[in-house]
Amino acid sequence: MKLLILIVTLATGSAFFLPKQHEIAGTWVLDTTGKKCEAAVLRIQMAEGYFTGKLDIPDQQLYDQPVTIQFSQDKIKILLDPKGSCFIEGIVTDSLIFEKDGNGLGHGYWNNGKPRDQGAYKSGKKEGIWTYYYKTGMKCQEVNYLADSAASYTCYDESGSIQKSNCFYEKEAAFPGGDEKWKQYLVNKLTKARMPKAYYSGDIYGEVLIQFAVASDGSIIDVKIVKSAEPSLDEIALRIVQGSPKWECAVQYNRPVKAYRRQPITFGRATN
How far apart are CA 208 and CA 195, in angstroms? Predict the structure, then answer.
């Protein structure tokens, strides 16, 4: 028996065509805004052939009527009644098909339907050549895996040519000049910050923990307080991080990606 895991989102694009099987267990996730009826699909078990099955809905009640699964080049439609007036549709964005021994295939798709990644598993781990793609559908990296570890990789630019410089499998986001320059930036901004009077009198102090994200273009976004010291000190810490110059973005599979960071900023207790 094969185990099939699917994540489905409402979008247009090319669907992943599944092989015909007599028994499939799987997971489907759809955006509820696109439903034409109330039963949201969480799981579907294909019991007899390719086009019939049963649905589990969010309140764990079994939807035990036959359903019809229609695959086309740009979408999947799940019909919940014979006339097709009640249905849910979407595209496959991720799929894993495993045999009992953990061998199988993985496919990932961008929301536009273009391929995102594809490759094989052996004993539940990535094995052999995996190919990763830009959102345009062009290949961005080929990685040779040995038991989930990247043994070697080749990068490609967006035109499809081999990329000989700045080729990364994974790279963390970094402030220009590295960690020491980031510390210098923080200290410089803290030194110049106008503190509230209560700070100088020693009444307010403490550590503020800031979470932020480095977007794929290097800009600082999603800045928020994780641990508060005091509202006026929190605001100073927020402004310092929000005012940061652009970073060098994180990279995964030779693609720029969004990455999260946490930064503690300590306001020591002032003494006379």
Answer: 14
Give the single-character DSSP code of 15. P
Cα–Cα distance measured from residue 55 to residue 125, given in angstroms and rounded to the nearest whole number: 30
- Asked if 225 and 238 count as a contact pair (C-beta separation under 8 A), the reply is yes
Q: Are 269 and 205 in contact (CB under 8 A)?
A: yes
DSSP state of 32: G
Q: What is the pLDDT of residues 149-205, one digit of tens each?
A: 999 999 999 999 999 999 999 999 999 999 999 999 999 999 999 999 999 999 999
Q: Which single residue is written with the structure tokens 């999947």?
A: 76
198: Cβ–Cβ under 8 A, 6 or more apart, which residues? 204, 230, 232
Q: If DSSP codes are grouped into helix, strand and coil, which group holds residue 30? A: coil
> What residue segments make up the domains of the chain, in order of their start?
1-113, 114-167, 179-267
Give the type of residue at 133: Y
Please tell me the class of the 179-267 domain. Answer: alpha beta
Characterize the bridge pairing of strands 76-79 and 68-71: antiparallel
